[in-house]
Amino acid sequence: MPSKYIRNIIWNRDFGVCWHCGSEETTLHHRLNRKMGGDRTKSKVADRPSNLLTICPEYNSLMESDLNVVREARERGWKLQMGQNPSLTPVYRFDGTWWTLTDLGGIFRVDIDV
Question: CA-CA distance, 42 to 9, in Å (whole number)?
């Protein structure tokens, strides 16, 4: 679990809304699964701001159980595969924009040709 300091950074960066649908009911989601970032207590990736998003609980659950949702989540940067760098992988926002997230809690809009 990220520290309260990191949780506040994510909440403020994401305005407390879901990247998938814009809902204000959210939970923190690890883009790269914690187990892929190393030991939960010593991970260098898992709890970095670039690896965390606010996602609604419904979609967060579907990302773990529905293969079609997993595909969509990977295409949109909400779910990463081992070897992908969260700070270099753009993230799609529900409003149609793409963003790059930094490990310091910053966010930068990027242009993506889809």
Answer: 20
Is pTM beyond 0.85? Reply is yes
Please report the pLDDT score of residue 13 as a whole number.
98
Spans in the chain with pLDDT lower than 70: 35-44, 114
Distance CA 23, CA 52 (A): 17
Buried b (16+ CB within 10 A) or exposed e, 102-113: eeebeeeeeeee
Core vs surface per residue 35-72: b (16+ CB within 10 A) or e: ebbeeeeebebbbbbbbbbbbbeebbebbeeeeebeeb
Burial class (CB in 10 A: 0-12, 13-18, 19+), 15: exposed
Domain extents for the chain? 4-110
